[in-house]
Known about the structure:
two-stranded antiparallel sheet
Amino acid sequence: xxxxVRVRMRVGEAALQQLRAKLDAIGxxxxxxxxxxxxxxxxxxxxxxxxxxxxxxxxxxxxxxGRKVKTYRQSKVVVGIVGPRKGFRVIINGVxxxxxxxxxxxxxxxxxxxxxxxxxxRGKVSDTxxxxxxxxxxxxxxxxPQVFGPDxxxxxxxxxxxxxxxxxxxxAAGVLRRxxxxxxxxxxxxxxxxxxx
Length: 197
């Protein structure tokens, strides 16, 4: 997911960390599997919230939003990713538009930019000597402020991913705790069945 918006959450509750450690001790990677299930549930909720709040111009940005859960084997870190996926490129008024390339501009906004000019560390503008891009980019949304192209004005941020995470964040520890407790109950029941047999 190119140009994704990154939000980090570390589960710092000692109780959750202890539950996960106990689970991993009882069953092989049981704690990691339970955390993965919790992260999976959280990413579904964040995705639904983000899709509900994303600003719509062509609808491609909303269609491109997706999620995935990744587990790093050595560190046992589980990561949930929500953001625009690649492969949603469309042609609008003769211009190729890919939501993965501009989602960060919608989320964070942008300052005025002119092709062929560069700001130095002190904020002074100098000419780079590079040729200016074609002006065909204005064909995409002539009624809206131009957010990409050779000469664009500023665009205000219209966040949709960060507010989605902010709404879900208070419930995150509870969801993970529920998944860990369910995994413990399942392991206890499984071990009881083995002993009975």
